[in-house]
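Worked example (supplementary).
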Amino acid sequence: MTRKLLYLNGIAILTVILFHSGGWGLMAMFSWAHRYGASPGAAMYTNQIGYFGLRMIEQIAVFSIPSFLFVSGFFIAFTVPAYERTIQWHTVFTRLKYLLIPYLLWSFIKVAMLVVEGKFPGVWETTKLILTGSITPAYYFVILLIQMYLLAPWLIRLAKSKPAVLLLGTALLQILFHSVQYINILRPESAAGQIFITFLPKWLFVTRLFWFSLGIVFSLYRKQFSVLFEGKTKMWLGFTILLWLVGFFEWEWLTRLSGLRFIEHRETLVDALYAFTFIMTMLSFDKKKLIQQKKVEQIGALSFGIYLSHIPVMEIVGRGIYHVLPALLSYQLAFTLIIALTGLLIPLFMMAVVKRSPLKRFYVYIFG
Amino acid sequence: MDTNQVLINYVQTELAKGRKSEIKPDDDLLSEGILDSLGILQLVSFLEETFDIEVDDEDVVLENFMTISAINDFIQSKK
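After joint prediction of all chains, the assembly is encoded as:
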């Protein structure tokens, strides 16, 4: 179980990169079509393979954030000695320091990019965006993780005394959050939709508390939970593939019901079940050797730094192509692939350079 | 090179990432922030490969990874 967590983290960051590059591909398809002489959205109809290819990538990546949180929960529980009731605040703050400083650094880089573009939103708005992880859409995860660590002392205490209460309570919250997404998708203008959008932003801990708690409980009760997945790889893999397919078609169905040509992806109940079965599948592999295990694990170990730095890299590459090579935007899959490769390789290169330079003592403050 | 030194070198070069300039055998790796969660996983792989031991799920507990000395004791117990 434990030995596959680094691999899970590696797969998760790789699919996050694919997911975000897919977002750029969809942007080229829907918003930048004028750059290659197509009408907005028409590209989708002339390039169905591209559209469904990008949607498949998006659907695969749904497990990523739950997986990161699961792994984080697993290891925060690990740092508690058996004789202690919960984690020490000192350990929490040490961990937070190495999350917060790199997050602020990369957020300021993003702010600098906005300034260069002439889109600086002002000091107050920028502060709000940074505090809610919204300076760029992907950074909400860091704010989420920080909240999880701050809650960890109470969550671990509850996990040690009443694990079932913690799991059931957070699972119910998770179900509520995903159920609300259907209202947000189908009736975004309704009063209920507006309330949920306002009070359940994706950076708020309640929207993902279950996954972090699940990691904590699995870590503390490893032996008891291992019966759920040991020797059950085929079953969990089967469920994962099935739920991925159901999730894919569910989204197409929801898009049609919404009456819109394209809607930004939101995690539904089916997606949450898929994420759960994906994690269980990975844990069930245990001692089995997986594809490119060593390399994926190495990438997994660098996941936080990659997560922070791939966003500005992708933005620079994507907008660079928009201005310099707009014809490439009409080949959305090729464009997506370029964004994905540069989104992975440039951060890895930057990390290697920092590690070998006098800046290496600041490495942890740059990449975590 | 003795086991302690091998471990110190690995933690220093691969995992500490500049968090501490000199690691001693009894430094608390977790509370001092020298090791993070992903670092522990890397360390498990390193121990299995370098010392030819198998680290089971139940071995991955804080007591075995708290300090370089604790890791060393754990390795000896697995041999």
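Two points are worth noting when inspecting this output. The mean pLDDT of chain A is 90. The longest helix of chain A spans residues 89-117.
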